[in-house]
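FAQ: What does a ligand-bound record look like?

Like this one, built around uracil:
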Amino acid sequence: MLQKNYFGYIVSRMEEKYDITQVLAWYIQSGVDTTCGDECCLKNQNKSQLKPVTSQSEIKNRLAVTTLSQTTNEAYKNARDICLKASNLSELKLMVENFEGCALKLTAKSTVFGSGNEKANIMLIGEAPGADEDRLGLPFVGRSGHLLDKMLNSIGIARENVYITNILPWRPPGNRTPTDSEIAVCLPFLKRQIDLIMPKIVLLLGGSAANAVLDNNEPISKLRGHWLEYTTSSKENILALATFHPAFLLRNSAQKSKAWADFLRVLKKLKEN
Ligand code: URA
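The answer part, i.e. the structure of the complex:
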């Protein structure tokens, strides 16, 4: 039977052949851990064209056409209202840990809140915790984190002197790309961290962080290397620079020189101020 929600529909097709718990386990392993949208996004298609999800890219395409649902809007508003009550980072951390509006929390081992110097001039923002971060409960402690440490050290900055966080405090299953809904719901927590730290510079690591914080859809290749501004909730402008994500640099070492140039821009700006 065609149900309202496409996830439900797929389950109902597959359960003809498989045990429902096996089907759900298969979804979670494939990175599908939540339904998206209140409506079936395929409902106008001929039923005979519908088929079970078979690949990550197919899942991604379907997520891309889904607009933010009512549930997402409510979770976002809830997060935004909760955040305003946090007058310091410890209170905010507790609020994130107790927040139930994002399904990523169900599959993650830890809530990975920001860490580092709360009076830092520089705040680095990545995408989401990976497996190592999820295991240890700290941001950027895996391979990407080690590269990030080296990049910071190369401009004479120790990790202890910066504050590091992510747009999402929970690891997406299988390190899949976060959905728009997940980012939207968690963004108030990140924005409140920026308000409470009030750094001189936010360094955005990769396209997801840059797009979420700067609220645009430009590719990272276009955004990186240019000084931009982020406006806090109290309407103060903070300098923002986007650069490549360390995980991307691990796969594309030829781009490291551009990231190096971006880190030098940060150093120069710090010296000017
Ligand atoms: N990648 C990120 O974006 N954040 C982390 O914390 C680790 C890897």
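Follow-up question: can I read anything off the structure? Yes, for example: Residues 126-130, 133, 139-140, 142, 144-145, 166, 247 surround uracil (CB under 6 Å).
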